[in-house]
Amino acid sequence: MASGISLKHGLLTTKCSVFHSLQRNILPHAICIQRPTEVKCIRASTNSTAESRHNEKYCIDIVRSRDYDGFVSSLLLPEDARRSSLALRAFNVELAQVKDSVSQKTIGLMRMQFWKTTVEEIYRDDPPVQPVSAELWRAVKKHYLTKRWMLRIISEREKDMEDRAYRNLQELEAYSENTQSSLLYLLLESLGVKDVHADHAASHIGKAQGIVTCLRATPYHSSRRKVYLPMDICMLHRASQEDFIRGSREQNARDVVYDIASQAHVHLQHARSFSKNIPASAFPAFLQTVVLEDYLQRVRRVDFDVFHPSLQKRNPLIPIQLYFRSWKKTY
User: Fold this and answer.
1) How high is the pLDDT of residue 47?
2) DSSP labels for 199-217?
3) Cα–Cα distance measured from residue 276 to residue 221, given in angstroms and rounded to the nearest whole number
4) Which run of H or of E encompasses 228?
5) Burial class (CB within 10 angstroms; exposed 0-12, middle 13-18, buried 19+) of 247
6) Exposed site from 120, 127, 165, 313, fewest CB < 10 Å?
């Protein structure tokens, strides 16, 4: 009986061996068969990776085309913060171009409301299916970015839909603080920097950037019969909006530009006064000062003629200057 059982088990073992051998020979792909759930997971992972790359590329493209200086500055950030920086700058570009891309204020306000809702959904871990939103959500999850700064940028851009000149220089500075400085606060967070001196420097650099942006955009706005330069300074030098609309290069128009540019320079000097107390890890967020300084020097060389053709051309040496400043770890 014992031998019979042994033989029986032996036959069973042999049959099993033959079956597995046939399975390998006849069905060579059988060992690769996966359960439907496993296939779905692999497909989802592949789709997610492809979608993530698409979102990242979208942000890179929009920043490179609409904010080239910011794009180059972002490339010089530490790798851990680079992608988040591009997402934040893409977010800023999306908001900045609303005003010029809509024909009616109501449409612009609707788009601003979309971004307000988007930010709220991002912080609920439910971002809408949109490239910039997805990248922002990734940045928020990675660096625990402060929601208040994003909402402040949106709110200030929303108020700017009024489409009128700034009443005075202080109003332009407030706008710059709420937009450009808020963006810098977020960049500092993406670099892992929490420092009061760095925040003070970011505040001044943001104001300088907002002022310089206003000056740089003057020829473009004038071509569309719009002027956003502070009215108090224009009145001080008896320069009318019509003077800028027709591209005046008279002394009174230059004096307006001089006063505004001087205030931007003062903010840069204030920002640099904090440099000895700021951690080196914060310096990459302030590389944009290279671009601001370059414009202020060039506008001074043409005697503050904001319509001079040379100011409409991009300085090809900016990327080199940015790299050099990054290497020196200064701003």
Assistant:
1) 59
2) HHHHHHHHHHHHHHHHHHT
3) 39
4) none
5) middle
6) 313
